Structures
1.
Amino acid sequence: MAQPKRPDPKAPAEAKPKPEPKKQPEGRVTQSEDVIAGGPRGNAFPSVEELIAEAAGSGDPVMDSVAPPTVARKEHKEVRHGETVKDDWFWLREKSNPEVVKYLEAENAYTAAMTKGLQPFADDLYKELLGRIKQTDLSVPVRRGKWWYYSRTEEGKQYPIQCRKAGNADAMDAGAKEEVLLDQNELAKGLKFLGLGAFSISDDGQQLLYATDTTGFRQFQLFLKDLGTGATTGPLAERVTSVQWAADNKTVFYTTEDATTKRSDTVWRLVAGGKPEKLYVEKDELFRAFLGRTRDKKFEVLAINSTDTWEMRILPSDQPGGQFKPLLPREKGHKYDVDHRDGLFYIRTNKGAKNFRIVTAPVADPSEKNWKEFYPHQADTLVEDADFFNEYAVVHTKKAGLRGFHVLEFRGGVWHTVAFPEEVYAAGGDGNPEFDSRFFRFNYQSPVTPGSVFDYDLGSKTRKLLKQQEVLGGFDATKYECKRLWAVARDGVKVPLSVVYRKGTKLDGTNPLWLYAYGSYGYGSNAGFSSTNLSLLDRGMVYVIAHIRGGNEMGEGWHDDGMLMKKMNTFTDFIDSAKWLVDQKWTSKDRIVIEGGSAGGLLMGAVSNMAPDLFKAVHSAVPFVDVMNTMWDASLPLTVGEYLEWGNPNEKAAYTYMKSYSPYDNLEKKAYPAILVTTSFNDSQVMYWEPAKYVAKLRTLKTDTNPLLFKCKMDPAGHGGASGRYDALKDRAWELAWMFNQVGITK
C-alpha cells in the first residue's frame, strides 16, 4: 500500500528528464516586483552574538526585548478564479537567493538568542533521554534462506551496522562468523546526512542492492555490493524509489522519480553487465509506481497507485525478460493489492467492501467472475493487510483504532484470533520474509509497554518473547497508567483518545497536557511506546493522542470524513477533543501544549487560527501550512497526486473550501499562542518556504507578546530532521525544553 506522502516525523513510535514547464491555468496572471525595503533592519540581519548583546541585562528569561528579524516584502499578485491574491512573501521560495539564506540564518540566530537560557535545561534533557537508551544493542535476527540478518548499534556511533550470520531454519549459529554487509557509519564519513533507502538481498544471498541519500531531499542513488568480494559498484541509477531482485539473481527491477515533481513514475530493468532498459512510464500524474514481490517469490509486483485507485501489474519472477501485465484493469475507485500462494492470487479489495475484504482468484484468469470469498467485509473493522505463508494466513485488522491478527491454518480451515492484554496498544508484523515459516513475528507495544518482538507459533498458538526494548534508568511500567477515552465532537461523533500519565498525577485540571494528532492520508496514529515521553510523564504531564478523522483508526470512512470537502472535521475534532479534555478536568486552557508535523503541522496551523485561546504553546514541525500556493503549483513535489486528498484548486468549489482552512491564508491580526516552528532547508516533502513564509507573515499580524520562534536546519537534513541518532536526540531534547518552559517546567 502506498505510504502517506507527508508523514509526520514526530509521530508516536511503532519514516526522468525534466518536463517542459507546465502551462498556467486559464486566466492566471502573475506579477512580482520589489516594493518594500524590509523594515527597521532591512536586509542587514544580526548575528547570534549581536542579538544576545542586545538583550544583555534583560531580566526576562525569554528576552522579550530582542526584536525579531524582519524580511523584505515583495509584491506578488495572482488571479485565481477571478480573485486577486496577494502574497508579499512569495519570493522566499527562491532557494538560491542569498537574501533568503540570510533571512533563515537570522531567524536561527534570533531563536538561539531567545532560548539561550534554555540550553542548560536542553543539555540536561539530552543526557536524560540518552540515559534511557541502550546505545550498544542488537536487533532480533531475521532469517532469509540460510542467513540470519540483523542490525547492531555501537555506543558513540550515529548509525546502525547491517550484519548477518549463517544458521539453519530454526536459529542463527551463534558461533558463526559475523559478516558486515553495510556499515552506515563508514558510508557517512565526511557527510552531515545519510539516509538509507532500499536494502535488498538477492535470492542466493550473494549480492546487496542499497540506496543512499546524502542531502535529505530524498534523492537516492543505487549501489550494488558483491557480498563475496566486498566490491561495490555504482551509482547504478539516480533518483531511485524502489528495487526488487528477480529469481535469476542477476536481473534487477527499479523505479525512479521525475526530476521536478519527484513522482515515482518510471520502471527499469537492469541485467548484470548490461544497460538499464526502460520498461514502463506512468503518464497519469495522479499515480505513483513502486515495486514489490510476493512472499513466495513467484511474482514481481508493480503497484501503480493513486489516492482512490490502485492497479497491480505482475511478472513471473523466473521470467525476468518479460513484461509486467495488469492483474485487473484499472478502475476508478477500485483499490486492491495482491499476494500469491499455491496457484492462487489473494486479492485484498474494496469492491463491494468499504473496509476491504479478501478474495482468491486463479492465476490463469483472476478476473472478478472467478473470485471466491476468503475473508469477508465487516462494517466496523478495517482489513488493513494480510500475510500469506505456505500453511497459514494472518489477516491484519483494525477496529476502534486497535490492530488484531486473525490466523487461518489452511489444512484445517479453522480461524483463531491473537489476543492482546491492554486497553490501548500498537501491534504490527515485524520481519516475516520466509514463506515456509510456521512462525509469525510481530511487534507489540503500548504507551507503557516497551517495544516487544514476539514469535507466534501459528500451529500451537503460543508466543515467545524474543526481545523487549531495554529502558535504562530504572523504568517501571507499573508507575504509569494508560487508558482509552472518547471525546465527543460537535456533530456527536466519538473521537478515540489514547491517554497515558504517571500514577499520582493530579487530574484536577491543574496539570499540563501534551496533545498530539495527525489526521491525514488515512494514516492512523499508533499508540506506541516512547522512552522520550517518559520525560513528560515524570514531570506531571499527561500525554494524549487524538485519533481524529482523516486517519483510518475507525476504518476507511474515518479517512473519507477527514479529507477533500470534509477536511474541516480533522480540525474541529482536534479542537473538540481539547475542549473535552478541559471540561473533564484533565487539564486547563493555559496548560495545553500541542504538537504535529507535516500534514499534522497543517493541523497545528489551522487550529491555532481557529481556537488560539485554547492552547498555551504549539510545536509545528515541517508544517504543510501554505496549502493554496503549494496545491496551485503543479510543478512542486507531491502536488498533483494529492488533488485526491486535499482537492484540485483549479475547481472553484475545492479552491474555496481549501482556502477556508489554509493556515497561511487565514492568519489574522489577533493574539496567538506561543509557537515554535521547525523545518529543514532540504526538506522535499514540505518545502522550507512554507514555514518560513508562515512565520514572516505571522510576525506582522500577531498582537500578543508570546514567543514566535523559527528554527531551520541549514545543514543537510530531511523531512524527519537529522539522520544521526545522537543529532536527532539533541534536537528533540531542545524541543522538549522549549515546550516544557511554556508551562513552567524548567528542570
Note: The first strand starts at residue 30 and ends at 34.
2.
Amino acid sequence: MKLACSLWLPLPLLLTLGCPPKTPEGPVPTATASASAPAPAKPPPREDASLIKRQTLFGNPDSVGPQVSPDGKRVAYLAPLDGVMNVWVAPADKPAEAKAVTAEKERGLRRFWWSASSAYLLFAQDTGGDEDFHLFAVEPGKAGPARDLTPYPKTRAELAMLSPKLPGEVLVLMNDRDPKNHDLYRVELATGARKLVRKNEAGYSGYVADYDFAPRYATKSTKDGGEETFTLGATEKDDKSFFKLAQEDALSTGVAGFDASGKTVYLFESRGRDTAALATIDPVSSAVKILAEDPKSDVQGLILHPKKKAVQAAASSYERKKWLVVDPDIAPDLEALAKVADGDFDVTSRSDDDARWVVAYVVSDGPVRYYLYDRKAKKADFLFTSQKALEGLPLAKMHPRVIGARDGRSLVSYLTLPAGTDPDGDGVPTAALPLVLYVHGGPWARDSWGYNPTHQWLANRGYATLSVNYRGSTGFGKKFVNASTFEWAGKMHDDLVDAVKWAVDQKIARPAEVAIMGGSYGGYATLVGLTFTPDLFACGVDIVGPSNLITLLNSIPPYWTPQIELFTSRVGDHRTEAGRKLLTERSPLSHVDRIKKPLLIGQGANDPRVKQAESDQIVKAMKDKDIPVTYVLYPDEGHGFNRPPNRTSFFAVSEIFLAQCLGGPYEPVGSDFQGSTISVPAGAEEIHGLPAALGSGAH
C-alpha cells in the first residue's frame, strides 16, 4: 500500500539509501568546444503502405484485463466504447453479451476493480494526464453516471485495499488535507461517506493494513535513503520501530501484507541474501521463514487464495516467468494451466468460491489469450484475445539474451528481429541490420519477455530492436539495483554502450546505424546517448525525458516528498554543493553543445513527474546554439501518451524520423493525425512531410 514513485509508469514504492556522491568510473566525456551543427537527416528512402498499420499496433485493443466477479457470476474487462477504453461486463458463461458500464469520453481507463460484494465496479481516472486520480464507482445493470468517491479538489486518491470481510467499503489513501502526505480513509461504496482511519502527520510513505482495514504497519524513508517500518499504535505517538533497512535492502525488502486471519505477515526479504525471497515474519520476535526463492531473480508476483488470502504461489522472472509453488494444493492447477496454451501465464482473478479463475497467456508474437478456468473440472474455456487484428500478421518473436557488461555483470535483454531476417530462428540475422536501442523507464523497473507493440513496430520497419535491463533495473537482486547508485550517465549508460557493442560484435547491428529511443528515464538515456557518446548513435527519440537533474528533483510531485531520499541517495542530492556538482555533470542540458545527431522530443504538457520545462529548456538551449531539434507537444497528455490518436500521431512522426536516420521504410501519415492534439513548437521542417501534414488540418 505504498505510493508510486517512479519516473515512468506507477510501480510499488521501494526505497534506497546512499553513500557520498562519487565521480563515475566509466568514461565520461570531458568538456569540448561547441560541436558543429548536426548534419541534416537523411531523406526517407521510401513509403510503404503494406507495413503493419500503426493504428493496429498502437490503437486500442479489443478486450483486455478480464476479471471474474467475487461471486463468480460475471466477468468485467476493458474495451473501447466510441474509441475510448471503458469497462464492460458480461455474464461469466456468456461473454458475448457484454455491455459497457462506464462512459468515459476523453481518456481511456487503465485500472478497475470489482468490489468485494460484486455489487460495484471501481475505476481510477485523472484529468489530462495530471495523475490526480480520483476513485469512481458504478453499479452494473443500473442506470446513471459513475459516482466520484473522492470528490475533493487537487487530490490524488489511491485504492489501498478491498476486503471480503467488509464488502461494502474500501480503504483509500487521499492527500486533500496535505498534498505531501496521504491520509487513510474507509469509504462507503453506497454513499461515498468517508471515515478517517489514520491521519498521516509523521510523513509515512505507505501503510500496510489487515483485512479488517486496521492499519498495522507504516513505512518511512530514513535520512540515509533507507527505510524504517513501524508497528502502529493507537496514535502516531504510540508507533514503534519494527525493523530498519539499510539502502542496500530498501528497494527489495518490505511487508507484503497479511492473510485473512491477520496472524500471518508476508514479507519480501533480501536481508542477508541477494535476491528477494517471499517469507513470513513473526510480528513479535521478527523471526523470518523463507517460503519461496529464486537464486537468479527476485520473487515478485503472488497468487493468493481468494478467501484465506494465503499465498499459494509466487513468481520470479529472470529471462522468462516461472511459478514457485508455496501451497501444494495449487500445484495440480498450475500443471494443468501450463498445458492449456503457449506462453507465460498469469492467474489474474478468482471467484470467492475458487470455482472460476481468469488466466492470461502471454506470447511475444501475438495477442494475449484469456481463458476462464473451471477449477473442479481442471478445464479452461477460451474467452477472447486482446486484439484479434494481430492474429495472422507477420509478427516477430522476442529472443531473451544475457549480455555481459564490461565489469562482468549480466544484463538480461530482449532482442526482436524483423520477420524473414532470421530463417533458422537463432536470434542472429543473415546480415547485420539497423538497430534501435529501446530503453525502459523507471529506472527502477524492468523489461520483460512478451508481446511488445514498440518492438513489433520497429521490427516491421526493418530494424533490429534491443531492450536492455541495465544496472538499476529491478528483479535481478539487490546487488544489481545498488550498482546503479550515483551512476546515472555513468555505469548505467556504460551498460547500454556495452549492449550496442555486443550487437555489433554479434553481426546483429550495423555500427553506423544505431538509434536510441525511450520514455522517462529512457528519454533521459536518449539525451545522455547523444551528449555523452555523441558518435555512437545515429539519432535519438526522447519521450518525456528529464534534461536537467537538478530541476527534475526540484519539481517532483508533492506526494513524492516523503520519499525524496530515494532519489537523492541514488541519483544525487540537489540540496548539497557536492550533489549539485554531480547532478550538473550528469545532466544532458549541461552538454548540449555535444549533440551532433538528429533528435526528436515528445512531451505531455500536464506531466507531473517530468514537467514540460524539462523538454522546453533543452529545446531552447539547442535552438540558441543553432542545433536542429524537433519538438512534439501534446496539451492533453501527462507522463506518456494515453489517448490513441496522440500515440499514433507521435509514432507516425517518429517513424519518418527513424526512416530518415536509419533508412527503413515508413507508412504514410494518412489519417494518423485525426483526433490528435499534436503540436510541433520547433523543428517540424526537420521531418519529411510534417509541415504539410500539420497544415492539412486533419488533426
Note: Residues 2-6, 8-36 have pLDDT under 50 and may be disordered.
3.
Amino acid sequence: MKKLVFLLLINSMSSLAINLDGILDDTQWQGAEHFNKMLLVKPYILSKAQFQTDISVTSDEKGIYFGIKNFQPADTRNTDSSARDQRIGSDKNQIILDFDNNGIAAYSFEIGVGGSIRDGIFSNENNFSNEWDGNWSAKTSQNDEYWVSEVFIPWDVVSMKKSESDIRTLKWYVSRTIVDINEVYASVAADNTRQRFMSEFAELSIKDFATSSFSLFGYATGRRDFHNQESSSDVGLDLFWKSGNGKQLTATINPDFGQIESDRLVVNFSATEVFFNERRPFFTENQSLFNIQGANGLRLLHTRRIGSRPDAGTGDASDIDAAIKYTDNRDNITYGMLAAFESSGNGFAGRDYFAGRVLHRSQRQSFGLTTSFVDRVDINRTATSLALDYEYLLGEDIKFKSLIVAASTKQDEEKTNGRSVWLNVQHQINPNHSHYFEISHYDDDFEINDFGFLPRNNLNTFRYHQTIKQTEFNESAATQQRIFNLDFFHQGNDSGDTISRTYQLSSTKEFKNATSMQWQIRYKEKGVDDLISRGHGNLNTGSGYELRAIYRSSNVNKFRYHGFYEYLNYFSEGRGVEVHLHPSYYFTDNYSISLSVFYSDYGDWVNWEGDELFARYKRKLLNNSLDFNANISPKQELRMRFQWLAIDAQANKEYRLDSVGGLVDTGNTVNDFSLSNTALQIRYRYEIAPLSNVYVVYSRGGQIFEENSNSLGNLFTPGLSNVTGNNFLVKVRYKFM
C-alpha cells in the first residue's frame, strides 16, 4: 500500500498551550491535523474499522500532542487500569514514532482507557522491548459516546537528529485495541506480528522545535537488613544530556541498583544459565542501539553481568563506581559507546566493561559493527568480541538477516578464539501466509558470557517455521481467525552428534468474544545430551512426544483466566503431566488479584548427581505466585507478590554413564530430596513528579533443602519459616532539572 504523507505546519502558540486533561477543548486543537481512516489489522483483513476513531496531531515549543477520540458504546469498554509499564489489558491506544525517519528505532506510547500507560522501543522492524522509560504524559476521559486519550510527548523524550529545516519528517503509527471484540485497528496497513512493520509507517511532517536538554536525577537509599542486623544508606547521581541534534550522554555516579522489582523464583538443575531481564533504569535508558540478539538466546551485551556476583571474595553483588553511555544519531548512521566500572570490595577488585557500536541503515538495508571488552582482574581474564550484523529487505516480501561474531578470551597465558554465524531468511508469501528458516553455528571455543549471554556453545542449529492464518469467516460465525504453525528444529554439535530433532504442529482458534483455544503436538527424535554430565560423556536420549491444550478466557469480565494441560513422555522426564492455571479477579478497574499455579508430575526424571553418576526420581513440582495490584491513584500504586516453589523428589535408582552413552544400574540407593523456596515483596510507589518517585519496599525470602521426601503441602511452612533474607528499603529518585 502506498504510504500516506501528512503535512502538519503549526506555528508556535505558547499562549494557547494545551492543558492536558483528557478533554480536547483547547483552542490549539482547532488548528491540528485530523485523521480518521483506520483499518482492521487484527485479524489482518484491512477492511474499514467497525468503530470510528478520530486522531488529531499538533505541536508547539514544548512537544508533540495527540488527541484521539475512540467512539464505542460505554457498556462494551474494558476500563481496567494497571501499574506503569505493565501489560495493558484494557481497551487502549498505541502511538509509535520513528522520530528520525531512518528505521533504526521507533518509540511506543500506550494509553489505556483507565489511565494506564506503558512505553517501549521497536527495532529491527518488529522487535519490541519494554526496557525503556520516557518522560511523557497522558490523560483520558470518557462519556457515553466515546473515550479520549490526550497525549503529550516532549521534544526531549529521546535524542533526535538535527533537522535541516524547521520541519521535521518522522514516521508514525497509531493503533486502537478493542478487547470486547478482540480487534485491533491501525492508521496504516501494518501489524507488529508481520515481518515488516516499521518500514510500513506513514510519514508525518511537523513544525520542529527540538532543542537540547539536561536532566539531573539524584537518589537516596536507606536499607535495613533484619536478617543480618545491618543497616546502610547511599546517595548518587544520574545525568542525561541531549544535544538536540542527535547526541545523547547518560552517566551515573555511585549508582544505586537496589532491587525494587522482584525476579521470578527459579531452581535450575540444568547445565545452562537462566536468563533474567534487565530492570535497572540506567541500563534500559537509550539502550536499543546495543540490543543485538541472535539465534538460541544469544545476546551480545547482557548488562546484568555488570554489578553481578564478584569473581572473588564474598558478596552476592558488586557495587559500581560509575557508568557512562554516549550515542550520536545522524541521518542514516548511529553510533555509541558504553562503559562501566565496578568498585573493589571485600576480597575482590571489581571488573571493567566497555562496548561500542555503529549502525548504518538505508531504506533497504542496515549494517552494524559492535565490539566489547571486559577486564576481570580477580581471575586474570580479559574477553573481547567483534560482531557484524546485516539486514536486507528484498522486494516487498523477503527479509534477510545475519550476524557474525568473533570472541576471544585470555586467562593467565591461555588464549581462545571462537566464532559464531547466524543466517535468517523470512518470506511473506501473502498477507496471511509466511515462513522463515534460519541456521546458526557456535563453535566449541566461542565464549561470549563475560559480557553477553548464550545458554551454550558447541552448537549447530537449523530451524524452519511456517504460519498460515485463516481470517475469512461468515458474520454469524463465532470464530474470528484460525492460526496454524508448523515447526522443525534440529540441534547438533561440532562432533557430529544429533542433540535433538523436533517436529511441532499447533493450531490456535481465536473467537469474536475474545476467548481463544489452542492445541499443540510435539515429537522429538532420539539424540544425545552432551551437557548434562558436565564433561563426563554424552547421555543417549530416546524419542518422545508431548500433547498440550491451552484455553484463554476473555478479558471483559471481572473474573478471567487462562491455563493449559500437557501430557508428555520424554526420556529425561518419563511419563508426566504439566498443568498451569492463572485466574484473575478485578474488584474494580484499579484493584485486582491473580494467582498463577504451575504443577508438574514426572514419573522418571533424570538428574545428574556428580561425575558420571545419575539418578532417576519421581518428581513433583509446584510453582505458585500470588499478585495483588492496587492503582490507588495516578500517582500511587501498591503491589504485592508472593512466590512459592516446592519440589518433592522420590528416588528410583542410581545409574552410571557407560562409554557408549547408556545408563547402567549401579545397585546403590539414592536419597530422596525436597526443597521449598518462598519470596515476598510488597512495594509502594508514589510519584512526586514525572520520573521522580518514592519507593518503599519490603522483601522477605526463605528456603530449605532436605535429603528426604516430603509432600508438597508439608513443605510450605518450612520454606517460609527458614528465613534467608528480610529487608526493608526506602528509595527516593528525584529529577532536579
Note: The domain at 5-211 is CATH 2.60.40.1190 (Immunoglobulin-like).
4.
Amino acid sequence: MKKINILRILFIIVLAGITILALIKPQHVETNLLRAFFSNGVKDELLVNLSGKYSANINVLLESVNPDALEKSKENFLNKIDKNCFEIQSADFARTLEFYKKYKNNLLSYKDYKTMNSGDFETITQQAVDNLYNPFGFSLLPEEEDPFLLFTDYITSLGSGGIMNSVNGKFYEIINLKVEKELALSPSVMNKEVKKLIDLQKSQSNELVNIYLTGAPIHSYYASARSMTETNIICIISALFVSGLILWYFRSLKILLPILASLALGMGMGYLTTSLLFSSIHVLTFVFSTTLIGICVDYSFHYLMECNIKKVFKSLTVSMLSTVCALLILMLSGIELLKQMAVFTSAGLITVYFIVILFYQFLPPQTSRHKFNLKFTRIKKAILIFIALIIATGLFRIKFNDDIRTMYKPSKQMLAAEKLYKEVTSTNANTSFVIVQGKNLQDILEREEIVGEKLHENNISYYALSKFLPSIKQQKANMTLRSKLYDEELAVFNEILTLQDLWNIKHFPNTYFSEEAFTKIPQLNEFLLDKNHSMIVLYDAENVQFLNDIENIHYINLPVEISNGIRQVRITCLKILLPIFILLYVLLGFIFSFKNAGKIILPSVIASLFAICFIGIFQPVNLFHILAIFLITGFGLDYAIFRFNGSKNSNDAVLISCITTVFSFLMLAFTSFKLISSLGFVLALGLLSSYILSILLISKD
C-alpha cells in the first residue's frame, strides 16, 4: 500500500510540475491550416506566408445603379468600421497621384521605356501630338509639365487605381480591409468582430445599395459558426445518449463523475504537454485529440466492470503501451500536425491510464442490471465475405484527392459574392506567384525588373512592387531616356510652350524615391512577405519554364503546391503504417507470443483496410481518411486486447465503449464541415468493423 501511495504522490507532483511549466510559457493556437502540413524549409515558410497575405483580407463590394447613393453608402460604411480591428487597405487615388507627381520625371511605363530605349523617340512624339488633337484625349498633368504624356501613360498602366467600376449597367465600389495582426491571432475574438462587420453589412444594405462581403475571414466565420452550432447539438445528443446508456446499464449516473474527471485531466495534460514541446498548437490537433474521449470511457468501463485492479492491470497496461507506441512513431514523420497529435494523445492517454490504476480503487463497487452476449457465429461467413468483397472492390476503385479545397464547401450566398467580386475586379484569371529574394529593397526591385522583362517577352500579365516603385537603377535609366527625348523632340512643342516651360522640362531635378513610397502608399507593403522577399502576382501563367534561369526566385502556384504538399503528407502517413504494425506485432509478440500477436493485431489491420476501401468505392480518399487509420488502429487494439486477455465482464466494457464511441463519431459524420464529417464517418465505420472483427477472429481459449 505504501508503494501505491508513493506513486500517487509522484503522479500528482508530475501533473503539477507540467502544469506550472506550461502556464509560464505563453500559449498560441495556430489556425492557419497550411502550417499543419508545411513547416519544413524556406519554401514551406514562403508558401505559408504567401497564403497568410490573403487569409486576413476582407473585401467589401458595394453595388448600386445610382452612383451618388453608392458614394454615400461607401462613406457611411467607412465611418462605422472599427478602425482598431480592421485596417482600410483601399488605395487613396488622389493621395497616390500627388505623391507620384513629385517624381514624375522618374517614371516611365514599360511600353514607353522599350520604345525610347530602342531609339524610337518619334513614335512617342507622334502619340502625344495625336492625343493633343483628340477630343477624347486626356492628361493627368498640364501640357507645360508633361507634353509627351509620359506620366499619364505610366499611371494608366497601373490600372484603374480606385476609380468606380461599372458592370452590366450597375456601379461598384470596393473597400479592402485587413484584419489587424493581433486580432487575427485570436480566432474567437476575430469571429466576434467579423460578426459585427456582417451585422453592419446587413444594416447598411437597402433597396438602393447592396453590400457583399468576401474573403477568408468571412468564410471562416460562417464555417465556424455553422460548425459550432452543429457540434453543440451533437455534443448534447451524444451526452444524453451516453448518460442514458450508463443509467440503463449501471442503474446510476454517479460513475459519470470519475469518467468526466479523468477525461478533463487527460485532455488538460495532453494540451499542457504539447504546449511545452511546441511553440504553438494547431487547431486540428484538438480535433484529432478528441478521440481521447473514447479512450477515457474505454479504460473507465473496464475497471468499473471488475472493480479489481489486478484483473484489468495487464490488459490496461498492454493496451496503453501499444497505443502509445503506435502514436509515437508519428514523431518520425517530420510533419508538425502528426507530431502534435502524437504528443497530445499519448500524454492524455498515459494520464488517464494512471488515474484509473491509481485512483479508481477509491470508487465503490458497481453493479449492472444487464449483460450483453453478442455472437455472430451464424453469420460469420457472410460478414467475412462481405468485408472481403468490399476490400477487393475498393482496392481497384480507390482514388486519392489531395485538394484541400474539397474539405470546405461554401454556401451559395458566399459563392455568388465571390463570383461577383471576381467579375467586377476582372480577376477571373488563374493566379500564381513568383517569390523574389534579395539582400535589400533595391536588390529585390532590380531582380523583379529582370523577371518583369521576361514576363513581358512571354505576354504574361502581372502585378509587382517594381511596377509601382521602380528601383533607383531603373529611375536613373528613365531619367536618361527622358533627357534624350527632350533633346531630340521637345522642339515640336515650341509653339505651345514658353521658353520658361521648355527650360523647366529639360532641367528637372535628379532626385530618387524609395522607402518613403511605403508611407505614402501603404498598399505597397502587401507585395512584401518580409524584408528579403517580395511577391509578383501572375495571371494565367501556363508556361513559366523561362523563369528557371533566374537566380533567387521561386515560382509558386498555390493550389498545385498545396495539393503536392498534402500528397506528400498522405504518402508519408501510408509509409508509416507498415512500421507501426510491425512494431505493434513485435511488442505484442513479446507479451502474448507472436502467434497470438497476429490474432490481436489482425482485426485492426482488416478494419482499417475495410474502412478506406468502403470510402474509396463511393468517393475519393483524402488525407484525413488516412489519418483516421491511426485512430482506428489504437481503438481496435483495445478491443482486441481486452477480447483476448480480459475477463467475461470486459466484453460488456468493450461493447459499451464501442457503442458510445461509434455513436459520437457517427454524429460528426452529419456535420456540414466536410473535414470533420469525413473523419467522423470513416472512424465510426472503422471502429464498428474493428469491434465485430475482434469477435469473429479472436476466440477465448
Note: The two ends are 34 Å apart (CA to CA).
